[in-house]
């Protein structure tokens, strides 16, 4: 068996384990369909923005749904029994992608849901009724709300393709480095924040890592992720405190040219 066959087998096994974990977790709460965010209702833009801020993916205490903590509890039990070998970060990430794909397919099959998505500005008409396109949104810091981005909408079939690519390539060796939140999740916790951020880290080597990075980039800001109350966006580049201190120390040295003012173009310097 060559490397490609091994990686394909790894992805197939990880998907089977993920479905097994999700199936076990569903006995603790609602089914995946019941646990996801309801389809959008016709409303004003202000109401839609407020609903978007409030409905986030799978808060553990929300609506008795099968949240991330229940998936984690199910994974812990299955892992201790030896029936699951994949790491928790992979199971959580794949579970999210699987839920997204399920909701996207169900929305396309339901004319009423699809029409509501179009009414609130999540989708636009495509080549035909079976091929709508999902709109991109961006954050407007001045208005402090999401607005429709200038990026051209992404076809429904193309959005599903990106989800499938993530499900296929994320389980491969060295691809999904991390998927976690800084806050400990528990069904007993009360989450007062409107957003529960998760950090996704993708490896730097290999074709599969590049494929996953490109897929996440295409899903960033895409309205289809709102079906499960998720917004994907790239990390804002921030320097660590150590890097800031190192930069300040270096720029304070006598041999650092960065601190020297540039001479006028017509000077003798």
Tell me about the largest β-sheet: 3 strands, antiparallel
Number of DSSP strand runs: 7
Shape: globular
Which stretches are poorly predicted, pLDDT < 50 over at least 5 residues? 27-38, 43-66, 265-269
Give the total of domains: 1
Q: Span from first to last CA? A: 66 Å
Radius of gyration: 22 Å
Q: Please give the order of strands in the largest beta sheet.
A: 1-2-5
Average pLDDT level: 75
Main attributes of the structure:
269 residues; mainly alpha; two-stranded antiparallel sheet; 7 strands; 9% strand; disordered C terminus
Question: Can you offer a commentary on this structure?
Answer:
By secondary structure, this protein is mainly alpha-helical. The protein has one domain (3-258). It is built from nine helices and seven strands. It has helices at residues 3-26, 32-35, 45-54, 68-81, 88-109, 111-119, 156-169, 207-219, 241-251; strands at residues 123-124, 133-134, 137-140, 145-148, 154-155, 176-180, 199-202. The strands form three sheets. A three-stranded antiparallel sheet has the order 1-2-5. β3 (137-140) and β4 (145-148) form a beta hairpin. α1 (3-26) crosses α4 (68-81) and α1 (3-26) packs across α5. The longest helix is centred in the N-terminal third of the chain and has 24 residues, at 3-26. The model is unreliable at 27-38, 43-66 and 265-269 (pLDDT under 50). Residues 1-78 are annotated as: Disordered. Residues 30-44 have a biased composition (Low complexity). Residues 7-18 have a biased composition (Basic and acidic residues).
């Amino acid at each position: 068996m060559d490397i490609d066959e091994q990686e394909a087998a790894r992805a197939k096994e990880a998907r089977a384990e993920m479905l097994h974990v999700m199936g076990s977790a569903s006995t603790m709460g609602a089914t995946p369909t019941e646990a996801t965010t309801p389809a959008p209702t016709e409303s004003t833009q202000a109401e839609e923005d407020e609903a978007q801020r409030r409905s986030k993916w799978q808060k553990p205490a929300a609506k008795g749904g099968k949240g991330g903590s229940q998936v984690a509890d199910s994974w812990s039990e299955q892992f201790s029994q030896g029936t699951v070998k994949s790491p928790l970060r992979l199971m959580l990430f794949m579970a999210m992608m699987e839920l997204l794909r399920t909701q996207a397919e169900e929305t396309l099959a339901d004319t009423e849901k699809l029409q509501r998505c179009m009414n609130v500005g999540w989708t636009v008409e495509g080549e035909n009724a079976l091929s709508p396109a999902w709109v991109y949104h961006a954050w407007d810091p001045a208005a402090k709300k999401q607005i429709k981005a200038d990026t051209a909408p992404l076809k429904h079939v193309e959005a599903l393709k990106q989800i499938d690519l993530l499900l296929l390539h994320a389980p491969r060796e060295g691809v999904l480095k991390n998927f976690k939140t800084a806050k400990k999740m528990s069904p007993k916790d009360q989450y007062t924040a409107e957003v529960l951020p998760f950090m996704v880290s993708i490896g730097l080597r290999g074709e599969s890592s590049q494929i996953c990075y490109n897929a996440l980039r295409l899903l960033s800001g895409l309205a289809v992720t709102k079906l499960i109350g998720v917004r994907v966006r790239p990390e804002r580049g921030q320097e660590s405190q150590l890097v800031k201190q190192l930069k300040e120390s270096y720029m304070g040295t006598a041999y650092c040219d960065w601190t020297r003012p540039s001479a006028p173009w017509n000077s003798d310097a």
